[in-house]
DNA sequence: CGTTAAGGTAACCTTTTAGTGACTACGTTA
DNA sequence: TAACGTAGTCACTAAAAGGTTACCTTAACG
């Protein structure tokens, strides 16, 4: 039963308020510029976008391509290595979809209001 | 490519500093009392243990069985529904294990020191 | 000479999470 | 009568995560 002992390290690279949104954008759209990501994720600000992208880059999930020109141009995309996440994301997504239904059945449609936090 | 859009909701129920540890204990050991969990996870405190267990219970992942006796006895276990998480946890674990090796290869063994955060 | 463009960074502030220590209930044992 | 044991809660503090605003760079455009 000790076969799950490393799942925390996978979780680590996925947590962060905006990482799911960023990954979704890059998976859906392929190569995107900084500004495009910013427009696609309306409530994010530059600092957070930069920060989350840097973390994903550090984990080798996204690739950052800098064009040395003025004004600057920087492109982001899912790296080859990062594409290996798709299995995990799929598993999470499938379970998550089912779980939302399960929660609806238990508590009714308004899930977010009934969660105990803090 | 929109097949990943719900993975965030799965992530939500897994995040929390102590949830991986708690799930691991309950998966490995089956039924456990509050005090046993506390001993098994040395650095957790009662408040956090209670809180994280309550969240897992709310999401129907763990079952809480109260015995009406003095001193109190409360047992926790993974619910039948919660066992459905195993596929996800396995996927996360497998990827996480590989990712740790990948990071070692990129940055050397001392991963934790080289992560950019904040 | 002033403005715009893109992709940031630095200093600072707010909100959310996590952690601490004291306290409670109540039947049993010493 | 006092202390023990279990499973908590409460009020409070500390730390981490997230957010805001101002500012930087440098070429080109008017």
From TrEMBL, chains A, B:
The keyword Glycoprotein does not apply. Transmembrane segments: none annotated. SUPFAM superfamilies: Winged helix' DNA-binding domain (SSF46785). The keyword Hydrolase does not apply. Residues 5-104 form the HTH hxlR-type domain. GO terms for molecular function: DNA binding. Pfam families: HxlR. InterPro entries: HTH_HxlR, WH-like_DNA-bd_sf, WH_DNA-bd_sf. Keywords: DNA-binding, Transcription, Transcription regulation. Gene3D superfamilies: Winged helix-like DNA-binding domain superfamily/Winged helix DNA-binding domain (1.10.10.10). This is DNA-binding HxlR family transcriptional regulator. It comes from Paenibacillus endophyticus.
């Amino acid at each position: 039963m000790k076969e799950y002992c490393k799942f925390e390290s996978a979780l680590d690279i996925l947590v962060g308020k905006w990482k799911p949104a960023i990954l979704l954008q890059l998976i859906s759209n392929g190569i995107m510029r900084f500004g495009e990501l910013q427009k696609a994720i309306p409530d994010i600000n530059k600092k957070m976008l930069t920060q989350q992208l840097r973390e994903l880059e550090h984990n080798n999930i996204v690739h950052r391509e800098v064009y040395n020109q003025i004004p600057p141009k920087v492109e982001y995309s899912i790296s080859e290595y990062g594409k290996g996440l798709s299995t995990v994301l799929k598993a999470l997504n499938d379970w998550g979809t089912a779980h939302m239904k399960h929660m609806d059945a238990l508590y009714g449609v308004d899930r977010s209001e009934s969660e105990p936090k803090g």
